[in-house]
Recover the amino acids of this structure.
C-alpha cells in the first residue's frame, strides 16, 4: 500500500489494492510472477516503474533475507524501490522504530508546529531532524498515522481548521499564517509532448504492443505510437493526460485491419472489451475510450 500510495490518490489505490493482493497474496507469489503479469496488474496506478521495483523488492527479500522483511529503516532503504519515506513508514508503522516518515503531509504538519521557514525540499533534512522529537518514547506507528490524518482533517495545504485542531495550543502559526508554511520551491512547468496513436482494428479486436523498457509507461500494454498522422486512417480526436513532468496530447487514429490482405502477424491482438481496458494504463485507457471501439 505504501508503494501504491506514492504519488497516487487513496481513491485510485482503493480500487486496485484488493485485486492486486488477490493476484499476488504473498512475497513468494510476487517474486515468482512474470514481469508483464505484475505490470498489467498495476495498470491505472501510474508511475509504472514502481511495479517492477516492487517485484524486485520481493525478490530481494526472498533471496537475501529468507523471505522476512528487515525491520529497520536503514536496512529497508537498501531494498529496490524503498526510498527514505517508504522505509521510515514501514519501519515505524509495522515494526515500531522511532523514526518519523516524512512525506509532504507530515512535512507540512511538522513545519507548522516548528514554525519552520526553510524552503522545501531544499531544507528537508533539517525538518526531518526536528520531527524526531515527536516519535521518541511513544507508539511511533500511531503517531505517524495520526500526523497523516491530521494533515488531511485539519492541516491542509490550502486550508486549515485551527480552532478544532487537537494540537492548537502547541502550534505557533495558525489561520492565514499557517498557509504560508512550509515554503515551497517553484516547480518547473510540465514538458509538452505530442503523440500520434494508431488503433488498427477489425471492429472486434485491435492490434496492440508492449512499450519498450525505457521512457513513459515502460513495459506497459498500449497502442503503437507513430511518427505522424497515418495515411488513410480516420482521426477520432485527441485527449490530454497530465503526468508529473509532462503534459501529453494524444491524437487518436483508427485504421481498418483486413486480415485477408494483411499477412503480417501482429505481436499482440486484444478484444475490444472491458477486460482489455483493465490491463491498460490510464492514458491508453483514455485513448481506447476516445476511439469508440471498446464495448464498456
Amino acid at each position: 500500500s505504501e508503494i501504491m500510495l506514492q504519488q497516487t490518490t487513496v481513491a485510485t489505490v482503493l480500487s486496485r489494492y484488493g485485486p492486486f493482493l488477490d493476484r499476488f497474496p504473498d512475497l513468494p507469489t510476487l517474486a515468482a510472477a512474470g514481469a508483464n503479469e505484475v505490470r498489467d496488474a498495476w495498470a491505472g496506478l501510474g508511475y509504472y516503474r514502481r511495479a517492477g521495483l516492487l517485484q524486485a523488492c520481493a525478490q530481494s527479500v526472498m533471496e537475501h533475507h529468507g523471505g522476512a522483511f528487515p525491520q529497520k529503516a536503514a536496512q529497508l532503504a537498501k531494498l529496490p524501490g524503498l526510498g527514505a519515506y517508504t522505509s521510515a513508514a514501514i519501519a515505524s508503522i509495522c515494526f515500531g522504530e522511532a523514526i518519523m516518515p516524512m512525506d509532504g503531509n507530515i512535512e507540512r504538519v511538522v513545519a507548522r508546529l516548528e514554525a519552520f521557514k526553510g524552503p522545501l525540499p531544499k531544507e528537508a533534512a533539517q525538518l526531518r531532524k526536528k520531527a524526531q522529537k515527536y516519535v521518541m518514547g511513544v507508539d511511533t506507528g500511531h503517531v505517524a498515522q495520526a500526523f497523516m490524518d491530521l494533515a488531511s482533517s485539519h492541516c491542509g495545504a490550502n486550508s486549515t481548521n485551527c480552532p478544532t485542531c487537537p494540537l492548537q495550543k502547541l502550534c505557533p502559526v495558525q489561520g492565514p499564517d499557517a498557509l504560508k508554511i512550509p515554503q515551497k520551491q517553484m516547480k518547473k512547468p510540465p514538458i509538452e509532448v505530442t503523440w500520434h496513436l494508431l488503433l488498427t482494428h477489425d471492429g472486434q479486436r485491435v492490434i496492440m504492443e508492449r512499450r519498450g523498457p525505457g521512457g513513459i509507461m515502460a513495459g506497459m500494454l498500449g497502442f503503437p505510437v507513430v511518427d505522424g498522422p497515418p495515411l488513410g486512417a480516420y482521426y477520432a480526436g485527441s485527449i490530454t493526460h497530465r503526468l508529473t513532468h509532462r503534459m501529453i496530447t494524444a491524437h487518436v487514429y483508427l485504421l481498418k485491419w483486413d486480415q485477408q490482405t494483411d499477412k503480417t502477424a501482429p505481436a499482440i491482438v486484444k478484444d475490444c472489451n472491458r477486460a482489455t481496458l483493465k490491463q491498460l494504463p490510464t492514458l491508453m485507457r483514455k485513448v481506447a475510450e476516445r476511439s469508440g471501439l471498446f464495448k464498456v
Observations:
- The mean pLDDT is 92.
- The chain has eleven helices and nine strands.
- The two ends are 28 Å apart (CA to CA).
